[in-house]
Amino acid sequence: MERNEFESMAPPLRERIVAMVIRMSADIDEDLADDVAQDTLLRLWTMRERLETYRSVEALAMVIARNRAIDLLRERSAPTISLDDFDRADHSPTPEETMIGHEEADALHRILSTLPSGQQAVIRMKHIEGLEINEIASITGSTPGAIRVTLSRARHHIKELFMQSQYEHC
User: Fold this and answer.
1) Cβ atoms of 129 and 136 closer than 8 Å
2) What average pLDDT does range 125-136 have in this prediction?
3) What is the helix, strand, coil percentage profile of the chain, to 5?
4) What is the secondary structure of 115-132 as a DSSP string?
5) What was the pLDDT predicted at 2?
6) Which of 14, 51, 67, 161 is the most exposed place for a label (fewest CB within 10 A)?
7) Neighbour count for residue 72 (Cβ, 10 Å)
8) What does the alpha-carbon distance between residue 90 and residue 17 come to, in Å, rounded to a whole number?
9) Residue 47 pLDDT exceeds 60
10) Which residues contact 85 (CB under 8 A, 6 or more apart)?
C-alpha cells in the first residue's frame, strides 16, 4: 500500500476506531480511544506491504484496536491483592464446571467452523468484534437487511447444532 492510499484511508478509519473503542467500556475516555487509534494506525503502517493480502483492512484495524483497548483496560484494572483477600472463600468454578465450560466452548467453535464462510464472517464481526449491523453491511458491501437475515440464519443453525450436540452427550 502506498503512502497516499494509507493517508486517505487513515482519517475515516481513525474515527471509526475511536467510536468503537469508546463504545467498548465506560472506563474508556476519548484520550485513551485516541491512543488506541494511533497505536492501531501505526501497526497498520508497519505492516503496509502485507495489507493487500487481507480481505478487509478495516476489519483488521477493528480487531487490532479492540485487542489493544482490552490490553489497556486490563493494565488499568490489574488487581491488587491484600492479605485479607486470602482469607475469603474461594468462589471459583469447580473442576466439573470448568470442564463443562470448555466442552461447550469447543462444541461452539466446531459448530462455527461448519457455517458457510459468509455466516462465519458476519457472526464474528457482530459477536466477537462487536460491530454494528450497519458497520458490517458497509464492510461487506451488503445491506443491513441482508446482514440481519444472515445473522438470524446463522444463529438458528448454531442453536440447532449446539442443542443436538448437547443431546448426543447425554
Assistant:
1) no
2) 89
3) 80, 0, 20
4) S-HHHHHHHIIIIIS---
5) 80
6) 67
7) 19
8) 38
9) yes
10) none
Q: Grid coordinates standing for 17?
A: 476506531
- Please check the confidence at residue 81 and state whether its pLDDT lies above 80: no
C-alpha cell, 33: 480511544
pLDDT for the residue 88: 54
The answer to whether 21 and 69 have CB atoms below 8 angstroms apart is yes
Q: Hey, what's the cell of 95?
A: 473442576
What is the rounded distance in angstroms from the CA atom of residue 125 to the CA atom of residue 33?
Answer: 20
pLDDT score of 79 more than 60: yes
- For residue 60, give Cα distances in angstroms to 46, 56, 74: 14, 6, 21
Q: How far apart are CA 122 and CA 119, in angstroms?
A: 5
The C-alpha cell at 114 is: 461448519
pLDDT digits (tens, 9 = 90+) for 133-158: 999 998 888 899 999 999 999 999 88
Q: Which residues contact 151 (CB under 8 A, 6 or more apart)?
A: 122, 123, 126, 133
